[in-house]
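Subject: Interface between my chains keeps coming out wrong

I've been trying for a while to get a sensible model of this assembly. When I model each chain on its own everything looks fine, but I need the whole thing in one frame so I can look at the contacts. Pasting all components below, labels as-is. Any help appreciated, I'm running out of ideas.
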Amino acid sequence: MNCEEASILLHALIDGELDAGHARDAEAHIAICPRCAAQLREFQEFRNSMTPATLRHAAPMSLRSRIEGRLPAPRAAESSRRSVIKGFAVGATASALAASGMLVMVMRSDDERRLLGEVVSAHLRSLQAQHLTDVQSSDQHMVKPWFNGRLDVAPPVIDLTALGFTLLGGRLDYVDAKPVAAIVYRRRVHIINLFCAPATGSAKRGVAMESLHGFNVRRWTENGLNLWAVSDINVDELTEFGEKFEGALRQ
Amino acid sequence: MAGGAADGSDGGKAERFKELALPHLDAIYTLARYMLRSASDVDDAVQECYLRAFRHFDTFRGGPIKPWLLAILRNVCHAIYAGNARLVYAVDTGGESETTAAKPIWREDTETPEQMMLRLQDAETMRRLISDLPAEFKEVIVLREINDLSYRDIATVTEAPIGTVMSRLARGRKMLRDAWLAAEGEGRLV
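Reply #2:
Try treating it as a single job with all components included. I did that and got this:
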């Protein structure tokens, strides 16, 4: 391999895009060529100094709404969103009504829609202001006590770093004009806000997955708490997050 | 569930499309911001991208949707460019707080206000330097460094062979690094 080839391949090496054979060849050349070795180091350093999070642009809310407004509105609940229906269709009358997709839509109370809007807004606020966390720590034993005395309930703070969701900290937020705990996680470059509020009433509801303005929201009830996980990660990953959280909670 | 809307209905299709496509809005918007000059072009291009993607959603063959959307956005940008030549050299829009607010913001360590200022200035400079790259290098840099696409996906989006992607990335990084070092040198002199 000559330096010209190596000067291109070293970038693929940095990006982890070379197969084993080419990687070996490139590394062999770099091992004996100080010039290419220096280049590799320089570009690695340069790349590390680029922080992708600060180079992204967030689409304005107005554009998001404009696009949503131009797409056809959903007509009714459908099979792929069965989990939503399960979440709302409580009680015997519900199952009778559920025979019609339209009626299931009616079942979704205004309250639930409003809360969904509120948690998504709270999520957006947390990303835009430089106020993602009040207490910044990946140690659950630091984050959990911070909520003591600030809330009527002790929110479950669980470190899921080993499971692919890094705990960033906690924050006091407001949903429905009531203080709630927001526990903040990171998945790669994506933020997940987990909002916890005391559940009113004793009904234990199933898991519901919804989306609003391009954000996914997983809502469920656990140990007398209403929980909403909000993020721009996809439904599968948010489901994974919810399941891992529930799993860790039961341990 | 009996009586539910058929999956093929417009509403059902729109719901599926929104669930899949809207989470990538920021990635699409980011590429448009780097590729186009005026803010209204950016918004129009992103909207046109989503409407076009929805119209052709039936032809989407599954797999990751992000490269597919980015490819559509790129074509939309080129159409705008062909129409009125406003592509390529993005202007510095430092005044728009909504879009220059980098997100998400978190730091592992707490930093002083001075450090934060420097970091924001660095990001601002880097955004400007990327915007100033010629289009064919800029797009691979944005797709790789900011949108985190694999070489294969970049090749799909830019309709170029992987070898071309690799050489453009190598050249683009060199141009960007040289420009960065030059800007840093100027900064020290001031």
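Reply #3:
Confirming on my end. Chain A is about 45% helix and 20% strand.
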